[in-house]
Fold:
Amino acid sequence: MKRCVLTAPAKINLYLEILGDRPDGFHELAMVMQSVTLADRIEISTQPGIAQFTQPIQIQCSHSRVPNDETNLAYRAAALLRDRFPDRIEKLGAIEIAIDKRLPVAAGLAGGSSNAAAVLIGLDLLAELGLTQGELSDLAAELGSDIPFCAIGGTALATGRGERVTPIEFPGPLWVVLAKYRSFGVSTPWAYKTFRSQFSDRYESDPVGLQQRRNRVHSGEMVGAIANGDGTAIGALLHNDLEKVVLPEHPAVAALRSTLAAGTDGNGADVLGAMMSGSGPTVFALLATEVAASALRDRVARTLDDPDLELWVTQLAPDGIIVLDS
Ligand code: ATP
Structure:
């Protein structure tokens, strides 16, 4: 029996700009993605000698909104490797993937994507596939747009539909308060479809214009602020186009964002910035210290006093997936 235990961290978007449409139905994006320390825990165990056809790939996850079947992204990652490397993966025998789900689901934090990336990395180790970073990224991109970033982690620019990932400097260990109402999620396809229906007249279609807009983000103020580790500037430059469709649809999320932005003193003095992550509905605030982040979490909990509200204090992480045990 072989075993590999990995973290599968959440990501937040420090910047998300929708540039235009793509022929494949996705959007052209320019994003700055950032791992945080809050993570699921993935344990992959293999049992040699058990024929694949009787017990192929099993998922164990007790979260009610996470499927335990072949639609689970972690399952799909294992199945993709089994298709591409049948001999090596078959030698492992039965594969069991246990997901300790600590991240909220359908939250804009790429929880499922991160689980899939962890399975790619874990099975690469267990089956000794020796995948290069490029090969891993190509496989990840087949599974989903956020998965190449999750496989790399840290801080990165992501363009194309999100799958073209360029690591950039880590801005430093800023603190983050994440906030989400437990009872609802936002469908990522809905958010992008709604954005298209309202804003496609602003889309860039000229390839030269698209490249110019990508370059503007690459050499723009946010990337500069990150390179300088300037938390105040990063907070001021947070941007997410999807707020334009998700916040009007979900006023409670807009109110939650305002409450975070108001900080512990009501005028936002100790909050560097607040924003929705990805397609939401999770919103986050950036702060300079753990003390300030814990104080904000406590104040938001007291102010809104809603049992449906979940809050986490976490930190920007310089790495993505970490192999804890193999
Ligand atoms: P993204 O930001 O990449 O869109 P998200 O954080 O908004 O991700 P997920 O938590 O990945 O959303 O969940 C989206 C959907 O995927 C849910 O409806 C969930 O049932 C399904 N899903 C499939 N596999 C997983 C998994 N391993 N973990 C969480 N959700 C999963």
Remarks:
- The CA atoms of residues 120 and 159 lie 22 Å apart.
